[in-house]
What we know:
Elements: E1 22-26, H1 38-52, E2 56-62, H2 65-73, E3 79-80, E4 85-89, E5 92-103, E6 106-112, H3 129-144, H4 146-149, E7 155-159, H5 165-172, E8 184-189, E9 197-198, E10 219-220, E11 223-225, H6 226-233, E12 236-239, H7 242-247, H8 258-263, E13 268-270, H9 298-311, E14 320-324, H10 333-345, E15 349-354, H11 358-370, E16 375-379, H12 383-392, E17 395-398, H13 408-414, E18 418-422, H14 425-430, E19 443-445, H15 450-464, H16 467-479, H17 484-500
Parallel strand pairs: 1-2, 1-7, 2-6, 7-8, 8-12, 12-13, 14-15, 14-17, 15-16, 17-18, 18-19
Antiparallel strand pairs: 3-5, 4-5, 5-6, 9-11, 10-11
Bound molecules: adenosine-5'-diphosphate (ADP).
Amino acid sequence: MTQGMEGIVLAEKPLFLPIRPRVLHVAPEMAPLAKMGGLGDVVQALPKALRQTGVDCRVLLPAYPCVLGNIEKNQLPLTRLRSTVNVALRWRVYSAHVLRTVLDGVPVYLLEQPELFSNPSIYPMDLDEALALPFAFLSLAALELASSTRWHPQIYHVHDWPTSLLPAALRWHRHYRQMGLGVDTVLTLHNMAHHGILPEQSLEGLGFDPASFGVDGLEFYGQVNLLKGGLLASDAITTVSPRYSWEIQTLQGGMGLDGVLASCRGKIQGILNGLDYTVWSPETDPLLPAPYRVGDLSGKALCRKALLQACGWEENDRPLLVFVGRLVEQKGVDILLAAMEDLLSLGTRVLILGSGHPIYERALQEESRRYQDLLHVHAGYDETLAHLLYAGGDMLLMPSLFEPCGLSQLIALRYGTVPLVRAVGGLADTIIDVDGSPDGNGFLFSDYTPHELRRVVERALSHWRDREQWKIIVRHGMEQDFSWKHSAETYKALYLKLLGN
Ligand code: ADP
């Protein structure tokens, strides 16, 4: 039997509700230490908000070189724990030193294993047997961590496919399945587009019972599907918005796993992501040339000026449409490209900041050469420029094919930049169409076509011309509260429910 630091017996379910649930988030990203997208933002903000609700929440992360670099840059404390964590994988034992830092009050454990964690882009381009090892190690090392930290989680909270092997191990691993009786798991789905598909032989030498490679386990059309295993084995599944939780149970949204998800229906819950207003507030944002707030938008005008200057553009009254995001199919770059000429002909200027698929980057760059005075494309990842775009823009374009939650529209709302979005996932949960409600904060369109994108811009422009009404729309967005507080309370309630069951 294992004794938790707070004296709660862990080998069985406790008979009373713990006052302070102990939850370990296991993830490959956590902003600002390692960030590739929205998942990194969530793993930074949610544990912080959970601690404020009284949950003893901690994070486990690989010590990628960028993580260590960012710890130094941000002058965070760093200690090395005495004992190592060891995991048997592929007939050899891999060891990692455990480092500990604290970020925004959240204890963060880092696995120092340079052989496995050296990929500067965090996620492998192709998943094959060898490349599965880093995430298998991260997932299983999480279950060994307590031997080094002497802190025993009651709940493992994992994120997407990279850490899905953790709940799967608690169900099907020859060694770790005994642990499964004493702990609970939550799997949060940030994006169903990636499943972690591996060849069948990848499971060999990882310690899984061969029976786990079956239709009720990790098998998926003759291959290993890590996410499927995680979905089936975890005690609760959350999605990052309520709408996304039912979209993924449909044929189009499930990306092949709709049947599996339908069988898990009873344990799926959609909890909207929040936004960290300590980072994203125009009143206090140190990356803006001028601060502003809802009652006084003069600073926003200065930000707009600075943004136009950064593009080498003259100031004029053309509305500025901005796009910040990954240049991938999901973000609707196809219809954006197809509609570009039309959007510009409506009298707009478009500013794009993004990195992603080289085909999209090239196509956008070509368009920007055609329309030099009207379209500016900045290919790359640039945090400072992103802040300036959100502040200096008039409208945000987010024509996503699908969008599990989306942070960009929440940021745009707070920065007084009116979102024009496709009505999917978290976009549909957060944007209220101006033409459908007196509380409208943005504009929605449904069909994934360039024509519909043009139409939504036309609708927005008809309101833009009435500046007094536009100010009201801006105010609605800026005054809304999408902070993490409410979401964190909902996660806490879920943890308590799991521990109480
Ligand atoms: P996803 O997680 O699908 O990439 P989200 O909208 O949930 O999309 O989150 C994206 C986050 O990454 C936002 O904070 C956005 O501002 C930021 N971001 C995306 N692309 C860039 C970029 N090229 N430069 C700076 N920030 C970016």
